Amino acid sequence: MKYYIPFLLCLCSCFALKAQSVPEVDSAVTAFMQRYQVPGMAIAITHHGKLIYSKGYGFADTINHIRATPNNLFRIASVSKSITAVAILKLVEAGKCSLADKVFGEKAILGTRYGHQPYNKQLQEITIKQLLQHTSGGWGNNSNDPMFSHPKMSADELISWTIDHQPLQHPPGTVYDYSNFGYCILGRIIEKLSKQSYESYVQQAVLKPCGISTMQIGGNTLQNKRKDEVIYYGQNAEQPYIYNITRMDAHGGWIASANDLAKFLVQIDGFPNPKDILTAASISALTTGSAANSGYALGLAVNPYNNWWHSGSLPGTASEIIRGHNEFNWVMLCNTRTDGAFFNDLDGLLWKAVNDPKTPWPTLDLFIQ
C-alpha cells in the first residue's frame, strides 16, 4: 500500500504529556497497527476524571512524515451521534422540547416544512426519542441509506426527498434499525429549536462547557482538510474523500482530537468528578435502552455491566469512545479502517490494560478541565 511506512519508523510516537510510557498500552496499540496497517492513531485515557495517558502513534500524514499526536483532528464518524444526543438533552433541560414531542405534522416540531402533504399517520407518530433510539420505523443503514445518496442535495432537500420516496417500514417505536438519516433529522430539530446552525449550537451548549474549542464539522475533500486534521487512507479500494461529510453533521460529520473527546466523555459519564454538563435525570435518559433494543440508548450503546460506548466508521476512518464501569474512559481514533476483525479488535484494544490493577499508569494528577 502506498501509505505503508516501515514499521519501526511508523510507530515513532508523540507523547503529549511528557510522561513515562505504559508498555501494556503501547504494545497493544503497536500490534494492532501492524496487523491492520494503520498509518496513524491517537488515544486518550482518563481515570476518575483525570487525563492519565494521551498519545499519538504513527503518522497523520505519511507522505510528509508528520507524526500523529493526541491533538490531531480525526473524523469521528458515528461517534457524532453521542454529541447530538447530548445536544438534544440540553434543549430538553432548557425547556425547548421533550423527548416525547412529535417531529412531523402541523403541530409537531418540524411542522410541514418537508416533503409533500398530507403526511401518512406513521410519519406523524415519530418522536424525538425514537429518532435518538433508532426506532423511528425505517431509513436504516443499508444499501438504501439516504445519507449516502444524492450527494449534491442539501440536508433539507434530502429530508424532503426521503420522506416522499422512502416510506417507513415499521410502526414507530417497534423495531430497532440503526439510522443515520434519523440523526440528520435531529440536527434539523436542533437548528429549529435553538435558532442557530447545528454546529454553532453544539459548540456553544455542549463543547464550550466541556472546555473544547477545536471540534468542528469536517470537509469533504482533501483540499478541505482543516488545520491539524489528519489525512485519511482507504484500504480495499475504498476512497476516503467521496462522501458529503459536511451534510453528515449530526450523525457523522464532526472532527475531533482524542483529547477533545476525553474532555467530552468525563462530563457525561455519571461519575462524581468533574461535574457532568447534564443533570442526573438526563444522564439516566442518555443511558437507558429502548424496548426494541435494550443495548442502545440515546446516542450510546450500553450493557448490563454499566459500560457505555459508541464507535464510528467511514472510509479512511475508525473511532470509538468507551466509558468503563471502573471510572476509566478512553478514546481511540484511526485514519484508516479495514474489514475482518478490525473493529472487534479495536473495541477490545485497551480493556486488558484498564482492568489490570498492576498497569503502571502515570501519576499526572491532571484534570481534564
Automatic annotation (TrEMBL):
GO terms for molecular function: hydrolase activity. Residues 25-349 form the Beta-lactamase-related domain. Residues 1-18 form the signal peptide. Keywords: Hydrolase, Signal. PANTHER family: BETA-LACTAMASE-RELATED DOMAIN-CONTAINING PROTEIN, D-ALANYL-D-ALANINE-CARBOXYPEPTIDASE/ENDOPEPTIDASE AMPH. This is Class A beta-lactamase-related serine hydrolase.
